[in-house]
Amino acid sequence: MICLLLEQSTTTMSRTGISILLSANLWDADPELFSLIQKEKKRQEAGLELIASGNFTSLSVLQCLSSCLHNKYSEGLPGERYYGGNEVIDDIERLAQKRALEAFNLNPEEWGVNVQPYSGSPANIAVYTGIVEAHGRIMGLDLPDGGHLTHGFQTPTKKVSASSMFFESMPYKVDPETGLIDYDQLASSAKLFRPKLIIAGISCYSRPLDYERFREICDSVGAYLFADMAHTSGLVAAGIIPSPFEYSDVVTTTCHKSLRGPRSAVIYFKKGVRSTNAKGEAVLYDLEKRINNAVFPALQGGPHNNGIAGIATAFKQVKSVEFVQYQKQVVANAQHMAAKLIDRGYNITTGGTDNHLLLVNLQGTGLSGSKAEKILERVSISCNKNTVPGDKSALNPSGFRLGTPVLTTRGLVEADFDKVVDYIDKGIKLGLEVVKISGPKLVDYIRVLDSEQTIGKKIEALKNDVESFSKTFPIPGHPDY
Ligand SMILES: Cc1ncc(COP(=O)(O)O)c(C=O)c1O
């Protein structure tokens, strides 16, 4: 009898139990995880986040992300779903599409958009899948020169990214002296390699891209021009750096970097006349179907409708005066930070910046990019090590990348960046002090960071200063998590 009761209690659904499971707040249901989230929230508040690809999104985007839209399956496109019950989801996706076009003042007769990619990397692979097809040829800026993994990155011994495994990639480079893209070299390599698509896009490059020149090179070999504006799309939308749309056939962007939206991406594709053939007849673009089919069913399943709603509301914000002011401040802060670092004797690649990021070159200082990243992390400043033009090893880069979108979202202006530069400079000097004790090896450097008491005290003091400063600036989102 007891056995029978026990069996019933584990096999019969208890409505009260289920209701508690489903309706309890995270802090009650899973205090262990909740306290980790709170810990991360405190880290974000206390630290100076200078990762160029990051941002703090708005409360309204976070509300979309945790809404009921998360629950709905909707494979397919608006009006052509593989599941029922998608009338509202269709309206939301159409709204996101409309606003995504409006954000860049695009005419829907000339451009279409797919708002379903889960993030930037899948969006880029979808572009290659749709346009280039398996083992077709692509060319992108080499990763160590400021490109992105998904632009075909491989090393001499390893195909690192799927974009080099499933497509044949050849990189183009920056001039090691100037740090600027070597368009002449790209033009002559393209004539030999004859790519089907050339990528104009950056993850670490502080100067405008010459889209007109890219177009010319693409036309000389009959290639598509694909602009991946993930990093700079917020600045493009605000009209403060050149737009790729005039010259490109296809454009992708993530929505979570300078755009300050949800973690997702969109793909824009050109419609209408592509060229005129020898008989004078118009040759039309056929990208719409190819891109849409590549996203689904080739690569993805059900769209993340909460993310798509986040896109819709983020692109609404893009049209506001405040958004444009924000983007102008992002650039002003980056330029100010570059100038102040140069005043203190730092070498900034290309001598400054026209966008939201800058690359500090530490060659010849005794400190590597990894060591700089580590010491800054210890004092609550987040940035990332990065190769600089001419670096021999991508594993041991000589610089670090700084970006201003996150701190500008928190309200920092030029005068506040004087302080930020001061903290960075103090951190780097402390790193040099550590190298004097540890010698050049990174393991020894970390050992000294972990064990040397005098260094530990200096780290603690600087960290306290950084955190007291940082906490005076608000971050958007939920107050406690
Ligand atoms: C230029 C560029 N494209 C694509 C991506 C990939 O985006 P995600 O991290 O969303 O996959 C990044 C990410 O940093 C990027 O910088």
UniProtKB/TrEMBL annotation:
Tell me the domain of life.
Eukaryota
Q: Does the keyword ATP-binding apply?
A: no
Entry-annotated residues carrying N6-(pyridoxal phosphate)lysine? 257
Q: Which Gene3D superfamilies match?
A: Aspartate Aminotransferase, domain 1, Type I PLP-dependent aspartate aminotransferase-like (Major domain)
- Does Cytoplasm appear among the keywords? no
GO-annotated molecular function: glycine hydroxymethyltransferase activity; pyridoxal phosphate binding
Q: What is its EC number?
A: 2.1.2.1
Give the required cofactors: pyridoxal 5'-phosphate
* InterPro entries, per database record: PyrdxlP-dep_Trfase, PyrdxlP-dep_Trfase_major, PyrdxlP-dep_Trfase_small, Ser_HO-MeTrfase, Ser_HO-MeTrfase-like, SHMT-like_dom
Keyword list, A-Z: One-carbon metabolism, Pyridoxal phosphate, Transferase
**An example of a Gene Ontology BP annotation on this entry?**
tetrahydrofolate interconversion
One cellular-component annotation, GO? mitochondrion
| Pfam families documented for this protein | SHMT
Q: What range(s) does the Serine hydroxymethyltransferase-like domain occupy?
A: 28-424
Name the pathway. One-carbon metabolism; tetrahydrofolate interconversion
HAMAP family found in the cross-reference section: SHMT (MF_00051)
Role of this protein: Interconversion of serine and glycine.
Q: Which family does it belong to?
A: Belongs to the SHMT family.
Q: What is this protein called?
A: Serine hydroxymethyltransferase
Q: Which organism is it from?
A: Photinus pyralis
